[in-house]
Design a protein that fits this description.
With 460 residues, the chain is α+β, with helices and mostly antiparallel strands. It contains six helices and 30 strands. Pfam families: TAXi_C (PF14541), TAXi_N (PF14543).
C-alpha cells in the first residue's frame, strides 16, 4: 500500500479539527472573521484589485471617512451617531412609501401626495466621487446618493456655505456655464418634481430640503461635467448659494444624485452611456471602490427584477424573498416580504420586516453559541463579546431575491462592531431597505433600461 504524503495527512487533520469545532457543519456554512478587522483604524489607503464591468466610464469611489477619502474628515462620527442618523433616514424613506399602494413594487397612480423633502440627514451618506465641472474643469468632490435626484455643488458667490476642501465652483470662470431661465423646459420639470423655488432675475431657482431640516438653495444651471476621461455636456445641477442647518458637516462640495428621477446623473447620461450604472462599495474605509456609468449588463449572471413606483420615482425597488443562515433557508412565510424593499446607497443598515429579522437573529445566535452575548447598541440588539478572540467563526448569511438571485454577504456585511448588522422594522407592513453595509465588495448593477438589478461578488 502506497504511503500517504505527510502534507495530505496534515490537511486532513486540519479539516477534521475544523469540522469538529463546528459540530460537523459544512465548512461553507461559516466565515472566518479576524477580530482586528472589527475596530480597524488603518491609516493607509490600500489599493486592492478592483474589477469593474466593461463598458461606459468608471470613476474611483471612496468612503468619506478614512485614509482613502480625497477630503478626509478631521473627526469621524461614532458608530452610535451614525446609527442614530441612519434611523432618521430609514424612517423618512418608510414614511415616503407609507401612502403608496403596493409599496416599492407599485407602478399604478394613486392619490398620495409625495412630500417635497428629498431625503433625510446627509450625515448618512458615506461614499464620494471626484468630478470636474466647467470649462476649464474645476475639481468637485461629491457624495453619491441613489435616493436623490437633484445634484448640486456650492457656488460663488455664496451667502451661507459650509467650508470645503476644494475651491468653490465659480460660474463666472466657466465658458460653458449657463443658468436656466424660468421659462425653460428644465425649470418646468423641476417645478413638476417639487424642487423648483421660483425665479430670481428671470433665472430658475431650486431648493432641496432634507429630513433633518437642512436646506440648500440657489440657481438651477447647466455646465460641462468631466467624469474620468469622458465628458457630459449640458449637465443639469444646482448652483447652491445658501444653506441652512447642517447640510454637510465635512469638507465635501456637494451631492451627486443617482436616483431614478428626471434630474439625476443616471437619467441625464442615459443617452450617452445607456440606461445602466453600477458601483462597488469597498469593505472598509481603507480601500477604494468604483462607480461605472454605462455598465455592461451582459457580464452579470445573478439578476433580479427592478421594481419602480410612479409615485416615488427616485428609489429603486427590489423583492427580497428569503434569507439563508449557515446555508439553510429560514422558515419565513413569503407574505412577510410583501411590502417590498429598496436598494439604497445612502442607508447604512439593512431594514427587515420584524418577523424576518426575528428569524435571522435567532438563527444567527444559534450559530454563535460559543460567544457570550453583549449589550445592545442603538438599533443593534444581537451583539456578542469577542474579548480575547483573535479569529471569530460567524455563520454565513445570504439574501435571496425574486427570480432566485442569491447574494452571499461578506463578513464585513454581516457583523459590524461585534453586532449583527441588520435592524428590524416596527412591523411586517413597512418598506424594507437593503443598506450599504450589506452591499460591500459586491458590484451592484442598476440596469434601469432592462428593469433589473445585477450582483457580482468580490469586485472591490
Amino acid at each position: 500500500m502506497a504511503s500517504i504524503p505527510k502534507l495530505v495527512i496534515l490537511l486532513l487533520c486540519t479539516c477534521l479539527h475544523t469540522l469538529l469545532a463546528h459540530g460537523g457543519d459544512d465548512l461553507r456554512t461559516y466565515k472566518v472573521l479576524h477580530a482586528g478587522a472589527l475596530k480597524s483604524a488603518t491609516v493607509n489607503c490600500s489599493q486592492p484589485q478592483v474589477t469593474p464591468s466593461s463598458g461606459g466610464v468608471t470613476v474611483p469611489l471612496h468612503h468619506r471617512h478614512g485614509p482613502c477619502s480625497p477630503v478626509p474628515s478631521k473627526k469621524a462620527p461614532t458608530l452610535e451617531e451614525m446609527l442614530r442618523r441612519d434611523e432618521l433616514r430609514a424612517a423618512y424613506i418608510t414614511r415616503k412609501y407609507s401612502g403608496v399602494k403596493g409599496g416599492a413594487g407599485d407602478v399604478e397612480q394613486s392619490d398620495v401626495t409625495v412630500p417635497t423633502t428629498l431625503g433625510t440627514s446627509l450625515g448618512t451618506l458615506e461614499y464620494l466621487i471626484t468630478v470636474g465641472i466647467g470649462s476649464p474643469a474645476m475639481t468637485q468632490t461629491m457624495l453619491i446618493d441613489t435616493g436623490s435626484d437633484v445634484s448640486w455643488v456650492q457656488c460663488k458667490p455664496c451667502s451661507q456655505c459650509h467650508s470645503q476642501a476644494d475651491s468653490l465652483f465659480d460660474p463666472s470662470s466657466s465658458s460653458t456655464y449657463s443658468p436656466f431661465s424660468c421659462s425653460s423646459a428644465a425649470c418646468a420639470q423641476l417645478r413638476q418634481s417639487h424642487e423648483g423655488n421660483g425665479c430670481s432675475g428671470s433665472q430658475c431657482q431650486y431648493m432641496v430640503k432634507y429630513g433633518d431640516g437642512s436646506i440648500g438653495a440657489g440657481t438651477y444651471s447647466s455646465d460641462k461635467l468631466a467624469l474620468g476621461s469622458s465628458a457630459v455636456n449640458n449637465f443639469q445641477f444646482g448652483c447652491s448659494q445658501s444653506e441652512s442647518g447642517n447640510l454637510l458637516e465635512d469638507q465635501t462640495d456637494g451631492l451627486m444624485g443617482l436616483g431614478g428621477g428626471a434630474q439625476s446623473l443616471a437619467t441625464q447620461t442615459a443617452g450617452t452611456f445607456g440606461k445602466a450604472f453600477s458601483y462597488c462599495l469597498p469593505p472598509t474605509s481603507s480601500s477604494p471602490g468604483f462607480l461605472t456609468l454605462g455598465a455592461s449588463t451582459s457580464s452579470f449572471i445573478v439578476k433580479t427584477p427592478m421594481l419602480r413606483s410612479s409615485e416615488v420615482p427616485s428609489y429603486y425597488g427590489v423583492r427580497l424573498q428569503a434569507i439563508r443562515v449557515g446555508g439553510r433557508q429560514l422558515s419565513i412565510p413569503a407574505s412577510v416580504f410583501s411590502a417590498g424593499s429598496i436598494m439604497d446607497s445612502g442607508t447604512i443598515i439593512t431594514r427587515l420586516p420584524s418577523t424576518a429579522y426575528s428569524a435571522l437573529s435567532s438563527a444567527f445566535k444559534a450559530g454563535m453559541k460559543k460567544y457570550p452575548p453583549a449589550q445592545p447598541m442603538g438599533i443593534f440588539d444581537t451583539c456578542f463579546d469577542f474579548s480575547g478572540q483573535s479569529t471569530i467563526n460567524i455563520p454565513t448569511v445570504s439574501l435571496v431575491f425574486s427570480g432566485g438571485a442569491v447574494v452571499d454577504l461578506v463578513s464585513d456585511g454581516i457583523i459590524l462592531d461585534s453586532c449583527l448588522a441588520f435592524a428590524a422594522n416596527s412591523d411586517d407592513s413597512s418598506l424594507g431597505i437593503i443598506g450599504n453595509v450589506q452591499q460591500r465588495t459586491i458590484e451592484v448593477l442598476y440596469d434601469v433600461g432592462g428593469g433589473s438589478f445585477g450582483f457580482k461578488a468580490g469586485a472591490c
